[in-house]
Amino acid sequence: MLTALDHVIVAVRDLEAATARTVRLLSRTPSWRGEHPAEGTANTLFRVANTYLELIAPLGDGPGGRSVEALLESRGEGLLGLAFQTADAEACHAAFAEAGLDPDPPTNGLGRDVESGAFREWRRVNLPLERTRGVFLFAIEHRSPPDALPPAGWLGSEESGVEALDHVVVNTADGDAARAFYGEKLGLRLALDRSFPKWKARMLFFRVGGVTVEVVARLGDELPQDDGDRLFGLCWQVSDADATRARLIDTGFDVSDVRAGRKPGTRVLTVRDGTCGVPTLLLEPGVPA
Predict the structure, then answer these.
(1) 76-135 pLDDT, tens per residue?
(2) 206, 188 Cβ separation under 8 angstroms
(3) Taking a C-beta distance cutoff of 8 angstroms, is the pair 55, 22 a contact?
(4) Do 124 and 2 touch, CB atoms closer than 8 A?
């Protein structure tokens, strides 16, 4: 039903400023610059090896722009939603309905790049927040060839830039409910469900198309009331953590030292600013054993 994490969506106030910061963060140029007058939004897309990042901002008046503006007012800039890829929107709609997710009927979408004039077409299936545990989430079937959205171009050496998305983090107050939603309802493959008492966390890793959706539930005596899930942060893959850190410092970012990751053989660093409100980790995967 869902074959990949098609893209992650970040809401921003100033699209030009956010685009410039993201270019410096990823060390890559935009794949696409679009506007959607009927929706009241504009976006910038960065396609990496296994997904793409969408920065979206209000532009004029429209339902999409009003929704983004409301989110910015209530939460500030940050992760807005997840889009999962499907090969068949109609079949996906039927599967969502059978799973009790009450999907909206598939709708057509059209995007235009304001610089090249190129068009992209798609169909999407939205899910109501009441069924997604509060996370804005939809499925998308692309009707244009893959090369309609080119890879984000490299700036400088590839070894110091971002190659791919490793995982997206979702916080939950109810690990069992989240497991049922992402695993049973959406059909994502559960790769790991393990509690880590020293971190006071239960972690569930769902794999789809080379990306992990990491769901984190807090452990402890005083657990919060289950009010749904919340998108939290992103972890990007880099080939050389030291080279990436040096580049980011040179371009004005506040970053941590490189340290050992939780998975043996990995190295990570935290980006503390310039990430459009998204907690951001960079990970050097290391050599597989």
Answers:
(1) 999 999 999 999 999 999 999 999 999 999 999 999 999 999 999 999 999 999 999 999
(2) yes
(3) yes
(4) no
pTM check: above 0.70? yes
| CATH superfamily of the domain spanning 158-284 | 2,3-Dihydroxybiphenyl 1,2-Dioxygenase, domain 1 (3.10.180.10)
Residue-wise burial string across 233-251, b where 16 or more C-beta atoms lie within 10 A, e elsewhere: bbbbbbbbbebbbebbeee
Comparing CA positions, the residue from 252, 254, 257 lying closest to residue 267 is: 257
What's at 79, amino acid-wise?
L
Hey, is 76 helix, strand or coil?
coil
Alpha carbons 261 and 189: distance in angstroms, whole number: 23
DSSP line for 20-62: HHHHHHHTB--SEEEEETTTTEEEEEEE-SS-EEEEEEE-SSS
Task: Name the CATH superfamily for 4-148.
Answer: 2,3-Dihydroxybiphenyl 1,2-Dioxygenase, domain 1 (3.10.180.10)
